[in-house]
Amino acid sequence: MDASIMNGKDLSSGAVSAVRCIANPIKLARLVMEKTPHCFLTDRGAAEFAATMGVPAVPGEQLVTERSRKSLEKEKQEKDAQKADQEKNLGTVGAVALDSKGDVAYATSTGGIVNKMAGRVGDTPCIGSGGYADNDIGAVSTTGHGESILKVNLARLALFHVEQGKTLEEAATMSLGYMKSKLNGLGGIILVNRAGDWAVKWTSESMAWAAAKDGKLHVGIDLDETSITDLP
Q1: How confident is the model at residue 87 (pLDDT cuts 50, 70, 90)?
Q2: Residues classed as catalytic
């Protein structure tokens, strides 16, 4: 599993990749951010750090669901693996947030079918690709075809457009459009800025997302289909 996290207040960040038997890799990434002078630990180094910090190991079988097992088998049968990766990124969970102090942050983690190839590290743990946060601009988390996201630094690219005066929706649309035109890569972006504005955009068939603001919960999966309810 891979994960990364970043605080927009001071650009502090942490990331891990190729970690096994950790229930919440994002918590381990946060420990890297808060407890070490480093940004990125991987494989054996990340495992040793997790043990040092007292992060409990979880039996591997507890982290495999029947849904993920079926998804893996379905992908194995796909003739075009790249197309499958671009259209289905079921293993990624991303979040962006604005707190009461005006600080923004992002966190992104992934595992399961996305990293089925031994030795592969995708976009998720890479600061600037899987996500980025800067109080002066905003925070973004990405999902989609990892190799394409890495090549265009999708998260930082989106915030660059915000820096240039684009709205969050325009920035997301332009960034995803650039990645698709250059690499035919599909993906999704969630953004938030210090004013509390947010945007969600994707070029894949669908993307499950939710946003909470001013006592309202916004939820969607397919294009042009959003439900809004009151938060409890």
Answers
A1: very low
A2: 92
